[in-house]
Amino acid sequence: MVNNQTKEKLLTEVERLKKELKKKKKYGLVWEDKPEDVVKMCKEKLPVLKEVKSKEIITDKNKPMNLLIEGDNYHALSVLNYTHKGKIDVIYIDPPYNTGAKDWKYNNNYVDVNNQWRHSKWISFMNNRLKLCKTLLTKTGVLVCTIDDNEQENLGLLLKELFPNREITCVTIVHNPAGIQGLNFSASHEYAYFVYPKGGRFIGYQYRDDKNNDIRNFRDVTGESSLRKAAKNCFYPILIKESEIVGFGEVSPSNYHPEINMAKANGVIEVYPIDPSGVERKWRFARQTVEEIQKELLPKYLKQRKVWDITRSKNKFNYKTVWNDTRYFANNYGTQILNKILLPNIFSYPKSLYAVIDCIDAAGNNKKKLTVLDFFAGSGTTGHAILELNKDGGTRQFIMCTNNEDNNGDGFKIATDICYPRISKVIKGYRDSKGKTISGLGGNLKYFKTDFVEYKEETDKNKIKLTKQAVEMLCIKEETFETVQGGGSYLIFKNREHYTGIIFNQLAIKDFKKAIRDIKSEFSVYIFSLGDDSFEEEFEDIKQKVKLSPIPEAILKVYRRIFK
């Protein structure tokens, strides 16, 4: 017989369960959360970065500094949440596809096809990392994540949950035209999710410079879709005078049927999208958007017809949602490229270099100055792509994170034997597998490894320990890698634009101020404090010159949020 006390406990538990059920989602992605060792580890040990100085590459101090971080990407992302919050323009990742083959470990064990928690483990794994990376994006930043059919639906739902206020577009990329043999179908494609802000232009154009007149002509030329009736806002005059475009007229009413050229006052000629047979067609851009590309349009005089027409000097188009170009074939432009740089078949399934280039260029909105993060760096294709893109004079920079596990069980480790050597050779130049000399693309690289500070509780001793181990993190945050003064109670670093000071003992403030007195530049100054005192009073006389931050409190605030 149940006594009153037991009955009361049961009723209390029932009420608790009811409340829990109300919290459960009625629609969305549901999975069994599987604890991850690298996440639990951060409850007692805080991640930091330590530089491997012997792997530094500097070819031009005027170029941006790229970073390669060796270690678990959860720990690397934790550090980047302090150093790069809101600073990343593009995140491009190619995570494990969870195929069931021995290509992905969870808690140091391979997840094979028979693992009953296989999908929950993968979703937990991705959820932990996507939560960390979303805070790194700028307000206009774009995330690109590639995947195949094994987890495509799950990834899409997870992204919708984590990025509810963003647009999400899934692009299909044909990367293996021969297909991967299956029981009923041969898979020839994979996917790339683009996650970007709503309400604006955040994805770049695809540029195609084609000699074909049908493409270079600004007038649509064939098919029903090229006719005037297909888009009434695309039939309007382009105004030229003395061989230059001087403006655009309004959309013509449907009952107005001009000739291809209509002479107006003051030497102005109206040019309409009418073909040689007199068929009224349409311009490729609507009237309300044509000004955006005015600089690309050129008047062209056709001598045989004695009329003016309009061409484009360079054609740009929206990327389509299906990418089918021979440059995206992974074997030709992924495996074979890597084989020429390193040893044959040293890495399984590297991405096409050109697929990654186009993903980054699209996500970066065609900008030449970007910070790009890849925390599943693998063979280093993303870094290679950035260096290739910078051949246009750009100053894009990359941050890559990868572990250093044995890739294929053949003794070659991913970070030290594959990713780093590839980037090093692409920067410096190399002899390919056929003995041909390939010139280097130039660039700079810093190599870091994740490390840890024991931190079971916030004691003064542990705060001092963390501060001493955080120097590289502060230099990365400020992008100041050149040492001006090292050792002692304070350190000074610089780049071309500003300086960073790190003061370990408040008693050294006076000496630090004396050291920087004649330096005419702004300083970011980090001062050790057991609390959050930034010692503003001591810097009152030079407050316009310095930006003060207490350490390690600024770092601990980030870690408390992540590891709570």
Overview of this protein structure:
It is a single chain. The model is unreliable at 211-215 (pLDDT under 50). The strands form seven sheets. Strands 1, 2, 3, 4, 7, 8, 9, 18, 19, 20 and 23 form an eleven-stranded mixed β-sheet that branches. α3 crosses α12, α4 runs parallel beside α5 and α9 (381-389) packs parallel to α10 (414-428). The chain is built from 14 helices and 28 strands. The protein is α/β, with parallel strands linked by helices. The longest helix has 20 residues, at 4-23. The protein has three domains: 37-203 and 320-448, Vaccinia Virus protein VP39 (Rossmann fold, 3-Layer(aba) Sandwich); 207-315, no CATH class; 457-563, no CATH class. Helices cover 27% and strands 26% of the residues.
Q: Which percent range describes the beta-strand content?
A: 25-35%
The largest sheet is: 11 strands, mixed
At the first level of CATH, what is the class of the largest domain? Answer: Alpha Beta
Given the helix and strand composition, which structural class is it? alpha/beta
Let me know the number of strands.
28
Radius of gyration: 29 Å
CATH level 3 topology of the largest domain: Rossmann fold
Low-confidence stretches: 211-215
* Number of domain units: 3
User: CATH architecture of the largest domain, please?
Assistant: 3-Layer(aba) Sandwich
